[in-house]
Structure formats: C-alpha cells, structure tokens
Amino acid sequence: MRYTLLALLGGLGAWWALALWTGPLLIPSPPEVLVAAGENAGRLLQGTLYTSLATMGALAIATLLGVSAAILAWWSPAASRAILPYTVLVQVVPIVAIAPLLVVWLGYGTGVATVTGAIAAFFPVYSACATGLRAPSQELVDLFALYRASRAAELRWLRLPAALPVLLSGLRTAAGLAVIGAIVGEFVGSNGFPVSLGYLVVYAARSANLGLCFAAIFAAALLALSLHAGIGAIERGAVGHWYGR
C-alpha cells in the first residue's frame, strides 16, 4: 500500500511538473482539472451514470454471448470450427470502423455505445470460458465417463465449476474493454442528449476545455477501475478460498 501511494504521488508530481512546463493549453494542471470537475459536476455525474448503464449492458451481453458460444464450441467440435472465424473477426475488426455503421443502423443513443462495448468485451469472455471448460484433468473426465454421466451432467458438475475462476478473471479484463468500447461508441453515436462521458471528451476537446476533457477521462478511468474492483471482489468471494486468498 505504501509503495502504491508513493507511485501515485510520484505520477501526480510528474503530471504537475509537465503541466507547468507545457502550459495549460496543452496539459492542464491537477488543480485546473479539479476546478473544471467542480464547475461541471452535474454533467460529469450524468455522463458517468449514462456511460455506466451502457457499459454494464455491454458487459452483460458480452458475458451471455461469450459463455454461450464457449459452451457450444465445447459441446460440438463442428460448432467450434464454425464459430472460430467469427470470434477472430470480432477481435480484429476495429471498433472505430464499425461505430459509424451502428449509428446508421441504430441511430444516436445508448444502443451504439452498448453494442460497441459488447463487441470489445466479447472475446476475453469467450476465450476465458473456452479455456476454463477444457481445464479439468483427464482423470476427472474419465471418472465422469466411468459413471456414465451425460454431457449435460459433465457440463453442470465438472466443466462450469472448473471454468468459473478463469471466467471471472476474463471478466475483469472484459470490464475495462467494455468501458473503452462504450466510450468509442459515444464518440460517434452520442449527440449530447443525454450527456455521456464520450460526448464530454469530444465536446471539451473541440472547445479547448482541456480541464473538462481530463476530468471526463478520469471519470471513465474510475468507472473501469470500479468495475474491475467489483468483479475482483466477486471473484475473491466465489473462488478465492480455492487459492487461499
């Protein structure tokens, strides 16, 4: 904890020194960001709430689709080969290139941010769950086969419990990516009604209000950290005792 605090103070000091050297037109100082945050507290709070809803919706969709696709891929080798190109495609296609099309299809609003966030978060969830489903040792698999357990029973009592620790770890990564994806969607798909963090970043940058821009960026970072910490707490409560945490 002491080293973490020292690292944070060191980073804050370096930021302040860089702001003094470059001037406020390029990098605002910490007090300037705090003043801008205070002056725009209402909009920042509304934007954080709006982006939080889009992010949590995106994470829920990514979890549902990722876990379902991983189970289907485990259940059927043919389905696994059929799903593979799409999982790779979702991973490699830039979200920035997709977002304008989503605006055409879905219009402005939460839909674009939710879909882009879900696209960004899908692959870590799928990859983690697919890896976890194949984690049980061959001895345990043979034991289930010896007792003539059905595929559904093997999935319920062996595969899913084994996948849970890996899945929760993947969800922590996916949470941060969901925030990034939602913000990217808001860059393109938000017209400011209601206010979102992505819209505030673009609006402040275009208005040369870098204090507000930095404040909105920090609000997005805090949102990602909060989701990461929340999933980490769930992970410790659900499977932490398996690892002596």
Kindly describe this structure.
- There is one protein chain.
- The chain is about 85% helix and about 0% strand.
- The protein has 10 helices and no strands.
- It has helices at about 1-20, 30-40, 40-75, 75-90, 95-105, 110-135, 140-145, 150-190, 195-205, 210-240.
- The relative contact order is 0.14.
- The mean pLDDT is about 90.
SSE layout and pairings?
Elements: H1 2-22, H2 30-39, H3 41-75, H4 77-92, H5 95-106, H6 110-133, H7 138-146, H8 151-189, H9 197-206, H10 210-239
Helix pairs in contact: 2-10, 3-4, 3-6, 3-8, 3-9, 3-10, 4-6, 5-6, 5-8, 6-8, 8-9, 8-10, 9-10
Gist of the model:
This protein is mainly α and 245 residues long.
Major β-sheet, in short?
none
Please state roughly what percent of the residues sit in beta strands, choosing from under 5%, 5-15%, 15-25%, 25-35%, 35-45% or over 45%: under 5%
Work out the oligomeric state of the chains in this entry: single chain
| Helicity range | over 70%
Cα(first) to Cα(last) distance is: 17 Å
Envelope shape: elongated
Element string (H = helix, E = strand): HHHHHHHHHH
Query: What's the number of structural domains?
Result: 1
- Second-tier CATH architecture: Orthogonal Bundle
> What name does CATH use for the topology?
MetI-like fold
- CATH classification class: Mainly Alpha
Structural class: mainly alpha
Structure summary, number of beta strands:
0
Count up the helices: 10
Question: Which short descriptors sum up this protein?
Answer:
mainly alpha; MetI-like fold; 10 helices; 84% helix
